[in-house]
Write a structure and sequence with these properties.
The complex is a heterodimer of chains A (173) and B (298). By secondary structure, chain A is mainly α. Chain A has helices at residues 17-32, 38-42, 46-57, 64-78, 84-104, 112-132, 144-161. Chain A has one domain: Arp2/3 complex 21 kDa subunit ARPC3 (Orthogonal Bundle), CATH 1.10.1760. Chain A is 62% helix and 0% strand. In chain A, helix 3 (46-57) crosses helix 7 (144-161) and helix 6 (112-132) packs across helix 7. The longest helix of chain A has 21 residues, at 84-104. Chain A starts with 16 loop residues before the first helix and ends in a 12-residue tail after the last helix. Chain B has 298 residues and is an alpha+beta fold. Chain B has a domain at 121-277: Rod shape-determining protein MreC, domain 1 (Thrombin, subunit H). In chain B, a hairpin with a 6-residue loop joins strand 10 and strand 11 (253-260). Chain B starts with 14 loop residues before the first helix and ends in a 24-residue tail after the last strand. The chains are: A mainly alpha (173), B alpha+beta (298). Chains A and B meet through helix 1, helix 4 and helix 5 of A and helix 1, helix 2 and strand 1 of B.
């Protein structure tokens, strides 16, 4: 029980805005890879994942505008309805910002239990918009991506924290 | 970099307010896009901005494919060469026949005063990727406005109709496949000339003919080709084959499922048919004469 609550708090350096931008562009590129067939089903929404991560870790440095613009970019790149991802990412960013204190109480692995429902909510919003616009429900495999996204969360967290670790100067250690 | 002291009193609008602002913006865009289609210019501009990113993302797969093509064994090449030579021989014979037939056909058409069918120009395009949208069946090809592609043009491969261009960007075009739900192709049964409208189902490799009466003469294996009466698809392009006809007397219409002939889900090279068949303009609807007021009875 004790392990699930706050892991020994590391003191990390503040994250650089440039690094946030870099990860967001990388996520966008991953989303834009030519996924098709089964790949499309298992592909998590990388942009949603990274936006959620930064909304939880650095809610003052990333905001609704970034999430919204990234959503519009995804809509244009996928040729989907203009605004569906924008709306979903906005709500995701809101959820991340509102919940960030609570989620950060947990170590990175138990955080997955918060992340998966949020990613599912993101999927549900897109699904709702498309069904309202006349599309058919594509089947439950549509939600697989969110679970994969949840599984990637700890990996991503570990990766994104690397540049924030204070560098130990060997001369003064 | 130092920690900035948290601004206690001035943090701008609350998250809830921002959520409402951006949500309503998104909603406005959604409504403007779905109901009114106002956003085409905006989408074009945004697409031009995203284009380099898309090309970068597609590059690794393209490079991998090139490398794969480079390491083809000689045996495979020779086998392909012999196959192509054989094909070439047989198609050369057919081509000669075709030329004779075309000449004859043109002559006959002139005789009966029929409109000459447009011999459509085509532009070869390569599929960049399938649109990553699980709700629709679309692909993105690497030719766009710059190559004379317009929305509405038909897209074919070597076996039949693949789909229709639905959106054009400066250097890209979005093709909706015939299997997309809500994509319709007017067709004709080659066996007996029956006309029908083929519609996509949203599932891969499956099309259906809707609203066909139970007694209509459709059989398994019938070939369907475009009828050309829509002015979008040039006539005579093969589209699909009837896979299954289910006649249930309890229902009003027969359930006819078809298979697309073209490799709708698996191709990299496509042809976009530039130039629509020249259809005479629709007759202008004359304004109805004002209805004479009905004389009151009595």
């Amino acid at each position: 029980m004790a392990e699930t609550r706050a892991a020994p708090q590391e003191i990390l350096l503040p994250v650089k805005p440039g690094f946030i931008a870099l990860t967001l562009v990388a996520a966008l590129l991953l989303n834009l890879l030519p996924w098709s067939g089964y790949g499309l089903w298992v592909k998590p929404d990388f942009v949603a994942l990274v936006v959620l991560y930064w909304c939880i870790e650095a809610p003052r440095k990333i905001g609704f505008l970034v999430a919204w613009l990234l959503g519009l970019t995804m809509d244009v790149a996928d040729g989907t309805l203009f605004g569906q991802h924008a709306l979903a990412y906005t709500i995701l960013a809101y959820a991340g910002i509102v919940l960030h204190r609570r989620v950060r109480m947990f170590a990175i692995t138990p955080q997955v239990l918060h992340v998966i429902p949020l990613l599912l909510m993101n999927d549900l919003i897109v699904l709702g918009i498309r069904v309202l616009a006349g599309a058919e429900f594509p089947g439950f495999q549509y939600f697989i991506g969110s679970f994969i996204g949840g599984a990637l969360w700890p990996v991503m967290g570990a990766l994104f924290r690397l540049p924030q670790r204070p560098q130990v100067d060997p001369d003064h250690a | 970099m130092e920690h900035q002291p948290p601004p206690f009193f001035k943090t701008g609008p609350t998250p809830l307010a921002r959520l409402l602002i951006f949500s309503s913006l998104s909603m406005t865009l959604l409504v403007a896009d779905t109901l009114f289609g106002y956003l085409t210019p905006l989408r074009r501009i945004a697409a031009a901005v995203v284009y380099p990113l898309q090309r970068i993302a597609v590059a690794p797969a393209a490079i991998a494919r090139r490398i794969g093509e480079f390491f083809v064994t000689q045996a495979a090449l020779r086998a392909e060469n012999t196959r192509l030579a054989a094909e070439n021989l047989s198609s050369a014979a057919q081509l000669q026949q075709l030329q004779a037939l075309q000449a004859e056909n043109a002559q006959l058409r002139e005789l009966i005063g029929a409109r000459r069918r447009l011999d459509a120009k085509v532009v070869a395009a390569e599929v960049l990727y399938a649109a990553r949208d699980p709700f629709s069946r679309k692909i993105i090809v690497d030719k766009g406005q710059q190559n004379g592609i317009e929305a509405g043009q038909a897209v074919v491969d070597d076996r039949g109709v693949v789909g229709q261009v639905t959106r054009v960007y400066p250097w890209l075009a979005e093709v909706t496949l015939i299997t997309d739900k809500g994509q319709f192709v007017p067709v004709q049964n080659l066996r007996n000339g029956l006309r029908a409208v083929l519609s996509g189902t949203g599932r891969e490799g499956s099309l259906e003919l809707r609203f066909i009466p139970l007694n209509a003469d459709f059989q398994d294996g019938d070939r369907l080709a475009t009828s050309g009466i829509d002015g979008v698809y040039p006539p005579g392009l093969p589209v699909a084959e009837v896979a299954n006809v289910e006649r249930n007397a309890a229902q009003l219409f027969a359930r006819i499922t078809c298979r697309p002939l073209a490799g709708v889900a698996s191709h990299t090279q496509l042809l976009v048919v530039i130039g629509r068949p020249d259809v005479p303009p629709r007759p202008v609807e004359e304004p109805k004469p004002p209805r004479p007021k009905r004389a009151r009875k009595g």
